[in-house]
Structure to design on (362 residues):
């Protein structure tokens, strides 16, 4: 996809005026950014709008990226901050959604893709559904660690917390996910074993 | 319950590859000798493999095209560092430091160091007649000149920043 170019080489090309090269970065990270946004805002339409905004912001301020961290870490920081600002603007409740009814509603609203997935009984779909039942903070940290390929130090940087706090939050998120899977997908888990 | 939580935490660190060499050996021993540990480990390993297999949500097919259309209207902003002139920052710094040093020198020169039995700094500071300092015409003139110079420096800094940004945008 990136024809042998790493992120820093692509960025250097873009900064030299090759705007089209930026499409490679968008292609490479769109799913990661979109997944992170959807875990926070719980709506496909809003997540797509935010993800687009994230890539536009990243382009505008690309000269400020000094390569001290991975480009993905820098991009996820923008994504996380943009998604949270969006929620604040909308005055949505960012606080814990630890309420089973809310989980069910959020799950039902999670979009067309999830509806199709729910009809299938693969491991991946079951986990995606269970992650969508978690509160946004837990879902985001799991997404960053497992899908965004970020280390605990990088997650701490993205979320603006201490590394130890990130470690505790990840542990807590996994415990909650396990509980969700045991509560809602116990039959599927048995079938899969 | 707490032991169970600690066991889970240690096992997650082991699975994530974050345990120290010593801890790793210890856990490997526990997994071989303790059934409870082995059971929990297999349980967590299954959750880990499920998490690794989870799929990413994908945006619409037009996503990249939409982004590229949007950025075509944008310009890359100059790096923050490039429009901050170091000389101006140094100038402002020197201005404030000279202001503080001058005030201190003048203040201490007003002190009567010979009188009184105690020589502590607090006592000496109490002897300074600050009303005298700020009633002095020369001191007031010095402060006014410095404030005006400071405002000039700030204005030069802001207009320079604005000009550079416009030029590069």
């Amino acid at each position: 996809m990136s024809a042998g170019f790493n992120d820093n080489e692509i960025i250097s090309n873009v900064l030299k005026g090759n705007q089209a090269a930026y499409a490679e970065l968008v292609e490479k990270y769109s799913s990661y950014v979109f997944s992170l946004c959807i875990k926070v805002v719980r709506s496909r339409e809003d997540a797509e709008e935010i993800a687009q905004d994230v890539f536009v912001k990243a382009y505008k301020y690309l000269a400020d990226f000094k390569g001290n961290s991975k480009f993905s870490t820098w991009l996820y920081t923008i994504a996380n901050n943009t998604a949270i600002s969006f929620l604040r603007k909308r005055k949505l409740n960012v606080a814990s959604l630890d309420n089973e009814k809310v989980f069910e509603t959020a799950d039902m609203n999670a979009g067309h893709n999830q509806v199709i997935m729910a009809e299938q009984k693969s491991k991946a779909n079951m986990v995606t559904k269970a992650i969508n039942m978690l509160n946004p903070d837990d879902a985001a940290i799991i997404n960053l660690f497992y899908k965004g390929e970020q280390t605990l130090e990088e997650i701490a940087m993205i979320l603006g917390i201490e590394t130890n706090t990130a470690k505790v939050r990840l542990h807590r998120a996994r415990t909650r996910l396990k509980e969700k899977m045991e509560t809602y997908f116990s039959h599927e888990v048995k079938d899969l074993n | 319950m707490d032991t169970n939580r600690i066991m889970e935490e240690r096992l997650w660190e082991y699975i994530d590859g974050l345990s120290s060499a010593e801890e790793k050996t210890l856990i490997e021993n526990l997994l071989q000798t303790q059934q409870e540990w082995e059971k929990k480990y297999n349980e967590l390993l299954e959750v880990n493999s499920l998490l690794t297999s989870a799929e990413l949500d994908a945006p619409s097919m037009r996503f990249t095209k939409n982004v590229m259309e949007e950025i075509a209207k944008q310009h890359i902003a100059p790096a923050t560092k490039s429009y901050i002139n170091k000389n101006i920052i140094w100038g402002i710094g020197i201005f404030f430091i000279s202001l503080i040093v001058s005030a201190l020198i003048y203040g201490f020169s007003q002190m009567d160091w010979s009188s009184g039995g105690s020589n502590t700094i607090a006592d000496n500071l109490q002897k300074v007649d600050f009303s005298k300092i700020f009633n002095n015409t020369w001191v007031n003139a010095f402060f006014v000149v410095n404030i005006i110079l400071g405002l000039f420096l700030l204005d030069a800094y802001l207009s320079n920043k604005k000009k550079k940004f416009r030029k590069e945008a």
